[in-house]
Specification:
The structure is a single chain. This protein is mainly α. The protein is 62% helix and 11% strand. It has seven helices and three strands; from the N terminus they run αααββαβααα. It has a three-stranded mixed beta sheet with strand order 1-2-3, covered by helices on one side. α2 packs across α4 and α6 runs antiparallel to α7. About 4% of the residues have low confidence.
Length: 172
C-alpha cells in the first residue's frame, strides 16, 4: 500500500503536468505574483496599493493618490525584480499604476474565500463547449487513473473553458 505522501506527490505531479500542458502554469504563476505583492512591497506600501489584475506579464495596481502613483512608478523596476526573484521566473514584465480605491489588506478577499455569484454560475451553465474542446479536455484527463480525480479535473477544465468564453463574450 502506497503511503499518503507518495500519493500526494503523484497527484501534485499529475496536476503540474496537466496545467503545463494546457498552458495554465503561466496563469498560476501570474496569480502567485499578485499574492506576493504585499510581502514584496511591505506593510506601509500595501496599505496604499493593491494589485487588481495581471495579464501576459503586465500587472495593474491601484494606488490611493498621486503621491503614491509617483513614488511607486519610481520603484517599479525594483518591485518587478523582487517579485520575479521570489517566483524564480520572469513572470512580471511591467507594472501599471493608476489611482483608484484600495481596500485595506485585511479587507481583501483571499482566494479561498472567493465565492462565485449565482448569476455568474447561471451564465456559465448556459455556455456550450464545442466537440473539439471537449475532446481536448477528455484527452487531457485520459491518463489520470484515479476516476474521481479524473472527473474533478474534467469539471475544472470545462468550467475554466466556459469562464474564458464568458470573459470574451463580456468583453474582458
Amino acid at each position: 500500500m502506497e503511503s499518503l505522501m507518495s500519493q500526494t506527490l503523484e497527484i501534485s505531479q499529475i496536476l503540474e503536468r496537466l496545467f503545463r500542458k494546457l498552458g495554465y502554469d503561466k496563469k498560476i504563476r501570474e496569480q502567485k505574483a499578485m499574492f506576493l505583492w504585499n510581502e514584496v512591497v511591505g506593510e506601509h506600501v500595501a496599505q496604499n496599493s493593491q494589485p487588481i489584475r495581471i495579464d501576459n506579464g503586465r500587472m495593474s495596481v491601484v494606488v490611493t493618490d498621486s503621491i503614491w502613483l509617483t513614488e511607486l512608478n519610481l520603484l517599479r523596476m525594483q518591485y518587478i525584480a523582487k517579485i520575479n526573484e521570489e517566483l524564480g521566473a520572469k513572470v512580471v514584465k511591467e507594472i501599471d499604476f493608476k489611482i483608484g480605491k484600495v481596500n485595506r489588506p485585511s479587507e481583501r478577499i483571499s482566494p479561498r474565500r472567493i465565492k462565485v455569484e449565482e448569476d455568474y454560475r447561471t451564465k456559465l451553465e448556459d455556455i456550450e463547449l464545442g466537440p473539439e474542446e471537449l475532446k481536448i479536455i477528455n484527452q487531457t484527463v485520459a491518463d489520470v487513473e484515479d476516476e474521481e480525480l479524473s472527473e474533478i479535473l474534467k469539471r475544472i477544465f470545462i468550467n475554466q473553458n466556459k469562464s474564458a468564453k464568458l470573459g470574451k463574450l463580456d468583453g474582458e
